Amino acid sequence: MVTVRPARPEDSEALVAVHLAAIRELGATAYDPDQVDAWAANKDPDGYPVESEDDHFVVATHEGAVVGFGHLASEHREVQAVYVHPDHARAGCGSALLEHLEATARADDLERLTLLSSKNAVDFYERHGWRGLEWVDHESTGGVVLECLRMTKALGHEA
């Protein structure tokens, strides 16, 4: 069973491992090797805002191990990241993270969220009610430009 909890500074090495594995395996299904290499470059364990008061940064754990992470920037009304280790892809981990971020946004009285989806993740977001707005060139880490889909979702508030 997957559990979602707030990220902690001691999760930083696991965050890098999840991030790199997801980029290298899942990102490689949609981008060429040079893009994947550049996207995976320069991942810094201190670069994740796990203690930021302005961001909501969570991890998904399975049997105590970090297997995914999500990042919501409420101020910008944007999901910044949902990454899942490939060994746990398509097993509910990404869904649990995304649903948690959306619930957090609702609790913050946000009515709509946006995100930039990598090409390999578009279907995942569409299955969760997100819709595409426009394809954009996004400069990711390592200076690589990735074609991404800007997406949006109206949250609707539950009674």
Mind explaining what this structure looks like?
The protein has helices at residues 12-26, 33-40, 93-107, 122-127, and strands at 2-6, 56-62, 65-73, 78-84, 112-118, 131-139, 145-154. By secondary structure, it is of the alpha+beta class. It has a domain at 2-110: 3-Layer(aba) Sandwich (Aminopeptidase), CATH 3.40.630.30. The protein has a 7-stranded mixed β-sheet, with helices on both faces. The relative contact order is 0.18.
Q: Helix segment count?
A: 4
Give me the side-by-side strand order of the main sheet: 1-2-3-4-5-7-6
What is the overall shape? globular
- CATH-scheme architecture of the domain at 2-110: 3-Layer(aba) Sandwich
Share of residues in strands: 25-35%
Query: Could you state the order of secondary-structure elements as H and E?
Result: EHHEEEHEHEE
Q: Classify the oligomer.
A: single chain
The major beta sheet can be summarized as:
7 strands, mixed
Which blocks of ≥5 consecutive residues have pLDDT under 50? none
Name given to the CATH homologous superfamily of the domain at 2-110 = Gcn5-related N-acetyltransferase (GNAT)
